[in-house]
């Protein structure tokens, strides 16, 4: 049987056009950062109540998706599912690219991004943020090693498996760290829950798989490479399971909150009376990001329905962004309960739902993060041998170069 | 400048940091212009061994229409609230109405100077720090403006500087893109004033709703008051051990 071969993408107008489009979005994000830097965050929609806005939504979405994208390679290397193996290299590059995109947004939204070097040498080890700096940079290193074992001809399969296992465990720890950013905020009713880290892991499985499927579809659309039916069907079914798993944690979180009297006011706000956040929850997160994708992905004869699978992946991403928006911004919009049992008012928005209107600057920065991730992935495909060249439905189970 | 710190794990790294960063306490901006951090030269009184500086606020003596403490703080530290959601507020007056009884009340809220400050725990660089005498501060020289402390603070005590600052006080360095909060007038404490701007202003109005002092000194007014009359911490359920206590809430 013919072996899977990998080749760099050819220089076609479509490939370069896509890369230039991504670069344009990255440039727009750069300009918006320069503008914010020159004027201060006063030109954004963020304020002293909503301190993390749209940039954080994109950043956290990308960081969550990054660890999930790596699962695509883990399923092949750690869990031995053959149809996934040919795309493991691409999944690794995509995972690192998504993380870089997310981190870029996060870092460029700092009040003092010029001081980033401070965060490199003045660590406070009680901070989950500081731990995340190590987990994120370590992730890139571990995935690079894993990629090396994947791309080296004649690599001992035991090394490959060890590197893959390390990367898989690392990504679980990493997403635990991301979820803990919120889970450990004891003062805020919407957070303060140990369910946050596992919920973020379930979300990452779903977001990362959806992002991979979109990138794979886009790549095969603008090149002559093939997204095999077997892989697409397997990924579609698995995405459906991941979406269900993420929804399970959301349901468990809300149910347990509803049971606690001190959190029931928050629940009735977010689920019924929270205006834009309630709409984003039910329409964005639950319907668009959950129910519709599951209906699409679990329908019979999915192998013949490429469009439905693609649409489902796109909806999972849009619903995921809505979900992260509800968590990040909605969680801050709900007032802190500093005086339980009292109605409060002040000049500092005590006791009221905090308002936030994102600006184009923040949107540009967020889109720039996605564009940067796609640009890095695209350049990776253009200059590295990470996309299978001869993959068809017949060769999908062919031996890997490293085997 | 000497900043004593406690001996617990997280504080040890902060102490090392401060030792190394001792030179950063005064930053020369230009010949003849020196920006002082953390109140500059500390006097012996300011670093009283074993001190736990605190405030006691009697809501029963705090009229709703009085905001002398807020104005004094703004003048002392140079922050201005022009009514924008991006404007800093180191201290604010909060009006309370008890849901069960309808009783109304008013009191100032500022950094509560926790024994176990969540802002210090979450700060990635250690810019949020606690001195051994209980004062919680932001080292504006290493704050990267991530705003995680603002997410973590249970009292919304912190503000983010969202634009260039003008008219800075030499005793209170501030900066665009960094987080700031009540520093319990650390410069006044370190130079031995024995009070804070808000407490001075409150006493000047005759309301006497605020007392400043060393909670660990049994002879201090504040220690005598809290040992005699009932007082409470905000969000005592969080177990943070606050340096600011309230009466008659």
Overall mean pLDDT of chain A stands at 95
How much of the polypeptide of chain A forms β-strand, as a percent range? under 5%
For CATH, the homologous superfamily of chain A is named as Formate dehydrogenase/DMSO reductase domain
With strands numbered from the N-terminus, the spatial order across the biggest sheet of chain B is 10-3-11
Q: How many distinct folded domains of chain B?
A: 1
The helix-strand sequence of chain B is: HEEEHEEHEEHEEHHEHE
Specify the structural class of chain A: mainly alpha
Number of strands of chain A: 1
User: What is the end-to-end distance of chain B?
Assistant: 38 Å
- Helix and strand content put the structural class of chain B at alpha+beta
Tell me the major beta sheet of chain A: none
**Largest interchain contact:** A-B, 51 and 63 residues
Number of domains of chain A: 1
Structural summary, described in words:
The complex is a heterodimer of chains A (about 400) and B (about 250). With about 400 residues, chain A is an all-alpha fold. Chain A has a single domain (about 15-385), classed as Formate dehydrogenase/DMSO reductase domain (Formate dehydrogenase/DMSO reductase fold), CATH 1.20.1630. Chain A has twelve helices and one strand; from the N terminus they run H-H-H-H-H-H-H-H-H-H-H-E-H. The longest helix of chain A is centred in the middle third of the chain and has 31 residues, at about 230-260. In chain B, the strands form five sheets. Chain B has a three-stranded mixed beta sheet with strand order 10-3-11. A two-stranded antiparallel sheet of chain B has the order 1-2. In chain B, strands 4-5 form a two-stranded antiparallel ribbon. Chain B has about 250 residues and is α+β, with helices and mostly antiparallel strands. Chain B contains seven helices and eleven strands. Chain B has helices at about 10-20, 70-75, 120, 150, 185-190, 195-205, 220-230, and strands spanning about 25-30, 35, 55-60, 90-100, 105-110, 130, 135-140, 160, 180, 210-215, 245. In chain B, strand 1 (about 25-30) and strand 2 form a beta hairpin. Chain B has a single domain, classed as Alpha-Beta Plaits (2-Layer Sandwich), CATH 3.30.70. The radius of gyration of chain B is 18 Å and the shape is globular. Chains A and B meet through helix 4, helix 5 and strand 1 of A and helix 1, strand 4, helix 3, helix 4 and strand 8 of B. Strand 1 of chain A pairs antiparallel with strand 4 (about 90-100) of chain B, so a sheet runs across the interface.
């Amino acid at each position: 049987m013919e072996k899977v071969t990998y080749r760099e993408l050819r220089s076609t107008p479509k490939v370069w056009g896509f890369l230039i489009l991504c670069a344009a979005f990255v440039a727009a994000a750069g300009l918006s950062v320069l503008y914010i830097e020159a004027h201060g965050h006063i030109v954004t929609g963020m304020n002293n109540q909503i301190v993390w806005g749209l940039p954080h939504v994109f950043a956290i979405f990308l960081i969550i998706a990054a660890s999930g994208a790596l699962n695509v390679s883990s399923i092949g290397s750690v869990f031995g599912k053959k149809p996934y193996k040919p795309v493991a290299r691409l999944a690794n590059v995509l995972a690192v690219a998504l993380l870089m995109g997310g981190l870029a947004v996060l870092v460029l939204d700092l009040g003092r991004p010029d001081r980033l070097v401070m965060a490199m040498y003045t660590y406070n080890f009680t901070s989950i943020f500081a731990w995340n700096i190590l987990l994120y940079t370590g992730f890139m290193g571990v995935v690079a090693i894993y990629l090396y074992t994947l791309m080296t001809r004649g690599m001992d399969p035991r090394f490959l498996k060890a590197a893959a296992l390390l990367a898989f465990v690392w990504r679980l720890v990493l997403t635990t760290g991301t979820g803990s950013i919120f889970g450990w905020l004891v003062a805020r009713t919407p957070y303060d829950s140990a369910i946050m880290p596992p919920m973020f892991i379930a979300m990452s499985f779903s977001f990362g798989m959806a992002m991979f499927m979109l990138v794979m579809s886009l790549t095969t659309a603008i090149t002559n490479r093939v997204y095999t039916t077997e892989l697409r069907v397997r990924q579609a079914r698995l995405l459906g399971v991941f979406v269900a798993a993420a929804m399970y944690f959301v349901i468990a979180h809300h149910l347990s909150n509803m049971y606690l009297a001190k959190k029931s006011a928050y629940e009735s706000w977010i689920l019924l009376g929270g205006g834009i956040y309630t709409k984003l929850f039910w329409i964005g997160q639950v319907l668009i990001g959950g129910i519709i994708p599951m209906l699409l992905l679990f329908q019979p004869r999915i192998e013949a329905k490429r469009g439905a699978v693609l649409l489902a992946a796109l909806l999972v991403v849009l619903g995921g962004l809505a979900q992260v928006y509800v968590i990040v911004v909605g969680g801050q919009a709900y007032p802190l309960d500093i005086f339980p049992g009292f109605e409060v008012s002040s000049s500092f928005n005590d006791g009221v739902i905090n308002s936030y209107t994102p600006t184009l600057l923040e949107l540009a920065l967020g889109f720039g993060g996605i564009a940067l991730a796609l640009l890095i992935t695209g350049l990776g495909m253009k200059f590295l041998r990470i996309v299978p060249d001869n993959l068809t439905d017949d060769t999908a189970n062919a031996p890997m170069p490293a085997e | 400048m000497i900043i004593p710190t406690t001996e617990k794990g997280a504080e040890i790294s902060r102490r090392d940091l401060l030792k190394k960063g001792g030179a950063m306490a005064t930053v020369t901006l230009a010949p003849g212009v020196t920006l002082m951090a953390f109140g500059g030269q500390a006097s012996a009184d300011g670093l009283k061994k074993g001190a736990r500086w605190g405030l006691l606020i009697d809501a029963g003596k705090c009229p709703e229409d009085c905001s002398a403490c807020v104005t004094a703080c703004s003048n002392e530290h140079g922050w201005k609230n022009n009514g924008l959601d991006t404007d800093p507020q180191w201290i604010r007056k909060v009006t309370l109405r008890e849901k069960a009884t309808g009783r109304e009340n008013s009191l100032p809220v500022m950094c509560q100077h926790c024994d176990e400050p969540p802002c210090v725990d979450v700060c990635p660089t250690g810019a949020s720090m606690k001195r051994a005498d209980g004062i919680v501060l932001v080292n504006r020289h290493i704050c990267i403006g991530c705003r995680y402390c603002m997410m973590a603070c249970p009292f919304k005590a912190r503000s983010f500087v969202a634009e260039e600052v003008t008219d800075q006080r030499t005793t209170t360095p501030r900066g665009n893109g960094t987080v700031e909060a009540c520093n319990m007038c650390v410069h006044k404490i370190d130079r031995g004033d024995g009070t804070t701007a808000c407490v001075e202003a409150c006493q000047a109005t005759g309301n006497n709703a605020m007392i400043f002092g060393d909670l660990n000194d049994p002879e201090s007014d504040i220690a005598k008051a809290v040992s005699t009359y009932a007082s409470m911490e905000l969000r005592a359920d969080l177990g943070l051990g606050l340096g600011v206590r309230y009466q008659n809430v």
